[in-house]
Known about the structure:
The protein is of the alpha/beta class. The protein has helices at residues 41-48, 66-69, 71-80, 96-101, 110-115, 120-132, 148-161, 178-195, 206-212, 235-241, and strands spanning 2-11, 15-25, 30-35, 56-61, 64-65, 81-84, 166-170, 198-202, 215-220, 223-229. The protein has one domain: 3-Layer(aba) Sandwich (Rossmann fold), CATH 3.40.50. 38% of the residues lie in helices and 26% in strands. The strands form two sheets. It has a six-stranded mixed β-sheet, with helices on both faces. The chain has a four-stranded antiparallel β-sheet with strand order 2-1-4-5. Helix 8 (178-195) links the parallel strand 7 (166-170) and strand 8. Keywords: ATP-binding, Nucleotide-binding, Transport. InterPro entries: AAA+_ATPase, ABC_transporter-like_ATP-bd, ABC_transporter-like_CS, MetN_ABC_transporter-like, P-loop_NTPase. This is ATP-binding cassette domain-containing protein.
Amino acid sequence: MLKIENLSKVYPPSETALQQIDIEIEKGEFVGVVGSSGSGKSTLLKCLAMQQTWTSGTYRMGDHNITAQGWSGKRKVRRECAYLEQTPVLNVHRKALKNVLIGRTQQTPLWRMVTGMVRNDDYMGAMDTLERLGLLEKAHMLTSELSGGERQRVAIARALVHGAQVLLVDEPVLGLDPKSAETVMNTLRELALKEQVTVIAVLHQVELAEKYATRVIGLANGRIEADVKGRRLLQTEKQRLSI
Ligand SMILES: Nc1ncnc2c1ncn2[C@@H]1O[C@H](COP(=O)(O)OP(=O)(O)OP(=O)(O)O)[C@@H](O)[C@H]1O
């Protein structure tokens, strides 16, 4: 579904963050990206989300050659892939439901945005998504009253309501207590396994990647040094990754 060939990223003037990255990711895979600090994990995510320009490489999504399509390719990526930052960008003064509905604003006529009136099917869709993520009873609570893990799940709900088929998640459990981290990781795993949402998550803790992801990609100095499915990383692989 996603095919990346020979991706390189150099930040000006000369900081090489990624070199010759080749990856093919199937629909519904849950990929954990690990590696030491500065190995290029966030840059990889941003390049996949087209939030960073590519220095070189070819990007394919399904039958589409995104690289060759220029702006329309970029739009397609932005529509289908949601990039979720370490700390979700939410309006904490609004209810969880409102934050989820913000994901629908591109499809909402201006008069509805001005009057604040929400289409019934948008409302139902948002509530349905909150329920899938175990947040139904939090829908009408102010986002400031939610825990870090719940906020992270609100951000995921918003991405799904927006129509994202690929979640690019940077450190989804950063700063969360173990129980909340487990809930967020389980949510991501279930979305991948049961709903065929593709999840690519940068994870500092390799144990989390090994426990929840179906595939672990390890980066070192901007290169892929490990790419394993269905097994833990070997000690030698961890040494190559310096983790
Ligand atoms: N905007 C930028 N401008 C210049 N160099 C950058 C920029 N962003 C990242 N880099 C450099 O690119 C390299 C990879 O950075 P990146 O943030 O992708 O690594 P990371 O593996 O996500 O690190 P961490 O785990 O510490 O978040 C690093 O050497 C970093 O200093």
